[in-house]
Amino acid sequence: MKKKLQVLSIFLALTSATSILHAEGNINAGKQKSTSCASCHGEIGNSQVTTFPKLAQQHSSYLQKELHAFKDGTRSDPMMSAMALPLTNEDIADISAYYSSQRITGNALPTPEPVDEDDNSTTTDNKSNNIQSLIAQGSDLYRNGDLKREVSACIACHGPFGEGNKPASFPAIKSQHADYLIKSLTDFKSGARSNNPQSIMHMIAKKMTDQEIKAVAYHISMMK
What we know:
Distance between the termini: 28 Å
Radius of gyration: 18 Å
Shape: globular
Oligomer: single chain
Largest sheet: none
Number of domains: 2
CATH class of the largest domain: Mainly Alpha
């Protein structure tokens, strides 16, 4: 049954993807043009703030698609829209090429939330065990989905190692910040973010519980 779900996921992904041709940018030019991006995303694309995405090692095709979406308003974010608006097509290609050529860094294991000293019911060890349990749950959802609830497996579009799909502009997600992944999935779930082919991500995320979103995010953040 899980195999059937995976096949269905792959079918939906491939039939829903649009074929987009992107120009290859100049890495050296992109390094110079990316200086204004560094304050949020890091000098080489590994952001230190966990709510800002890592751009290092991301497919240039996906980065270009998202920058164009910010520029034309199909993806809404006041800060990013303002940053993308003055960029030319060449600028977008160059910046995307630069970040794509960098290496993404790994993440530390998520830490338990601080223990309330007045709450004796939950110990730090229990919370650590809970995180491991969430990561295991996320791993199962990532690879197998949930057939009964029609939650498609992430592996179909994002690959067995979170490497994504460059021709289809499906992003690489391995080693991404968990906080950013949680925000993205929550935005897809609510419809706040909708710039994806045939609303695939909305259709999947809206069927996920908050715990499942957290579990998948934790698992993906540990992928290397």
